């Protein structure tokens, strides 16, 4: 049995050539195109509900979220009308029990929480309190807020990144509303993009502008604090290379980071103290690695600008994706969302 994924992508309204959501399968070392699942305008991020045959797509340039009912391994149908979000909606995630969908908007900094009905459809959202630029000074206009990702932590809280304000915020989800618990201010110009939580409770944040991994650790006060900073490697240059997705190996002992501009995947080990240690880098065999997922002992990479999805075998000793297994031509891929069909 293979691994099935819904592929998000950019259509012409977002500068790409995709027609919408596609379905693919990875099986026995090979990638297979299962066809167009549903037409859509730049469904740049897709997330699947863990308990319902439903997926959600961020229609980025329309600023809307579309819900779809899964009808087969390669087809979905609309579940109600798309709901409004904000400018350049770029990321979606679900809370721990699948009752709330969180949307992040790069264009206007909005973070929204949508209640999910029993059939998977979305209700009216709650708008979280807006971010404030921690480096704004009197007489200087504040920088734009750029919400980029939300993630559900193992303790049930929600954490969000703001690439424009160089900060992260931790929230409690109370009766479907996001209640701010903590703001973590990073260095000016870091540009936190995406993050992943380790089973130990450590959080690894990849920065798009400073090209680092910042490790957050639980603090004595019950929040999180910056514990370390690790450069991705000497080959990566801020302003020329732009990290995208960060993921944790299935064994929780390595990190993988896609680096746009360098056309590569950076691999870092995790030391006994949790601090990342650069292992090396490998070519992604394409241009602009926007997203990636792990499937067993393979890493599947969506190369946005070269219109390819490539599967790599992972080296058994150091985890490097050093064996090209399969390549699939697909228009402007930006996201790979796994789906386990009921």
Automatic annotation (TrEMBL):
Signal peptide: none annotated. InterPro entries: Cycloisomerase_2 (IPR050282), Lactonase_7-beta_prop (IPR019405), WD40/YVTN_repeat-like_dom_sf (IPR015943). Belongs to the cycloisomerase 2 family. PANTHER family: 6-PHOSPHOGLUCONOLACTONASE (PTHR30344:SF1), 6-PHOSPHOGLUCONOLACTONASE-RELATED (PTHR30344). This is 6-phosphogluconolactonase (Cycloisomerase 2 family). It comes from Paeniglutamicibacter kerguelensis.
């Amino acid at each position: 049995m293979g691994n099935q994924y819904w592929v998000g992508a950019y259509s012409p309204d977002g500068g790409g050539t995709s027609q919408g959501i596609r379905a693919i399968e990875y099986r026995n070392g090979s990638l297979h195109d299962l066809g167009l699942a549903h037409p859509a305008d730049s469904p740049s991020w897709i997330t699947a509900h863990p308990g319902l045959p439903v997926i959600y797509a961020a229609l980025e340039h329309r600023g809307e979220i579309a819900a779809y009912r899964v009808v087969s391994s390669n087809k979905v149908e609309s579940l109600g009308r798309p709901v409004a979000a904000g400018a350049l909606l770029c990321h979606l995630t679900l809370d721990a029990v699948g009752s709330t969908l969180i949307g992040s908007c790069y264009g206007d900094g909005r973070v929204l929480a949508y209640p999910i009905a029993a059939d998977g459809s979305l209700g009216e959202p709650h708008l979280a309190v807006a971010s404030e630029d921690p480096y704004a000074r009197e007489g200087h206009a504040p920088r734009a807020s750029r919400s980029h990702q939300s993630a559900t932590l193992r303790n049930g809280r929600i954490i969000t990144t703001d690439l424009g304000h160089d900060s992260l915020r931790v929230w409690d989800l109370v009766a479907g509303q996001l209640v701010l618990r903590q703001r973590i201010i990073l260095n000016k110009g870091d540009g936190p993009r995406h993050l992943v939580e380790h089973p130990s409770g450590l959080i690894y944040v990849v920065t798009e502008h400073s090209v680092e991994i910042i490790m957050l650790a639980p603090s004595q006060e019950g929040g999180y604090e910056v514990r370390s900073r690790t450069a991705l490697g000497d080959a990566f240059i801020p302003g020329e290379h732009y990290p995208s997705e960060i993921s944790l190996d299935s064994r929780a002992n390595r990190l993988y980071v896609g680096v746009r501009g360098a056309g590569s995947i950076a691999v870092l080990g995790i030391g006994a103290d949790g601090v990342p240690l650069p292992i090396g880098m490998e070519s992604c065999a394409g241009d602009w690695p926007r997203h990636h997922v792990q499937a067993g002992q393979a890493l599947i990479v969506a190369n946005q600008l070269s219109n390819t999805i490539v599967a790599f075998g992972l080296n058994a000793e150091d985890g490097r994706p050093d064996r090209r297994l399969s390549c699939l031509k697909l228009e402007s891929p930006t996201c790979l969302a796994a789906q386990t069909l009921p």
